[in-house]
Amino acid sequence: MRLKDKTAIVTGASRGIGRAVVLKYAEEGAQVIAVARNEGNLRLLSEELDKNGLGCTTLAADVSSEVQCIKVVERALELNGKIDVLVNNAGMLGKRVEMTLLDLSDWKKVFEVNVEAVFVLSKLAATEMLKRSSGSIINITSGVVRRPYPKWGAYLPSKFAVEGMTMMLSEELRDTGVRVNLIDPGRTSTDMIRKAFPEVDPSTYKLPVEITDPFVFLASDESRLVTGTRIQIR
Prior knowledge:
Strand content: 5-15%
CATH superfamily: NAD(P)-binding Rossmann-like Domain
């Protein structure tokens, strides 16, 4: 098992990519703290893991709240005394409208989830990881950063911010044993992507279960020398 004895926090864990990553990490031996807002979906995830003889700790939390982010990290430390991996997967699409039609309140909601939560959780996790000179932070980006589209509201700027934050933090932590990387999952069959591209046949998308290998690689010791990298899944 490639993640045996590692403690991993995965946000946005109750469905889509986050759910697939939790299942894969558990299969690989990680002790996973699965974080999401929807308690019902977390319960279903826990039941599926139990059926397969696996387990994880589920935690209902809204990562747009700094207080709840702190509770997530505290819970991981209570359980295992360490944090080896943080996957900042929680994301919000927001309204797809022109910038001139976007309300500031809608902009703020997207940035709270997509940027501020990544900042707070990364800061907290990195502080703990530095104590052990080891750890992996994995952030999620999007192809819209490389090919900007119109009418992507606050989502596109938020992913630019995540990429910049990731690259800055990876340089600040270089040679400390704590690494920070990006994954661009591409068009994957999730509720968000179907909402973003309603005109596209959903059968053409990759399934979340098909893209978990890069997440395992970056969480494992195999990537101990990899930081500041953007992995694009095609």
